Amino acid sequence: MWYALRGQDLSRIGHYIRTANYFWLSITLALSVLGYFSRAYRWQMQLEAAQTSASYWSVYHAMMVGNLANLVLPRMGEVIRCSVLRRTSGVPVQVAVGTVVAERVIDVFILLVLLASTLLLDFKTFWTFFDRQLLDGRVDIVTRHPLPLVIAATTALVLVLSTGLIALRNLEKLRQSHLFNKAMLFLKGVLAGVFSVLKVKNKASFLFHSLFTWLVYYLTNYLAFFCFPETYNLDMRAALAVLTFGTFGMSAPVAGGFGPFHILVQGVLLVYGISKEAAIAYALVVHGAQTLLIASMGSISLVMTALADKKTLASEIEALANEPLTTE
Predict the structure, then answer these.
(1) CA-based, 20 to 30 A from 315: which of 30, 99, 231, 263?
(2) In a domain, 168, yes or no
């Protein structure tokens, strides 16, 4: 965040934020809520395909608790939501993790399609942005001096192959290990979750919710342009670019995307002729609103999950109390 804000007129940024039209921002937040509901429904479809049952609200609350955790622990929310779902609905963690992996594979594929579309629409502009602003011209350096990259890639390949050969030679010994067997059992559960996508009953609905989630992301960025006079006239192509590079910023191993998101979105808006202060104000307002939304919705889900977990524990204790005592 310091890097994103350095050398800028903070009073001017504050003016942009204070005078923004928050009507459009409220619409983006309403759309985001629908997007979270849709994403939870898609996850429930995957879990049902993996032959594990969980109510919609259990799935939704687990997902939002995971999103809340991502604001503090980067990328740990994916594991935490699977753990929450196990406690509230009894879904095996490995199966839930597999469905999340499949979900992420789909998202990465869509993101790559968006990146390709963004670059094709204005390849020259965005290649310059990518090389000069993000990589600081390092692509040219690698092109002129490829030997270090080749050595690094060869070393990594040799290490992977060597590890694989050692594992194959000691496969019988590994099979006798309790830890190895537990790892293989966990891996089977993960694979069952991953391939759950192929077993989804209503594939058309699954595809719709997958695309709808990204449509919400796109509209969120586009409608937010109307919050500021400087970005008001930006077109839908610019929104696609903001979505694409902003998603890369959110994917960085940083809690809540703070910093990388703002730097990348600001860089994209600079390409379209927006001033530094207006660009960073846009990033701050959009990211801040979404962060507050996740914090509020996630906190509600955290409370609901705690109550559900307490009820589950109470029912288990009651069931144990009602069991007849047996004596030998």
Answers:
(1) 99
(2) no
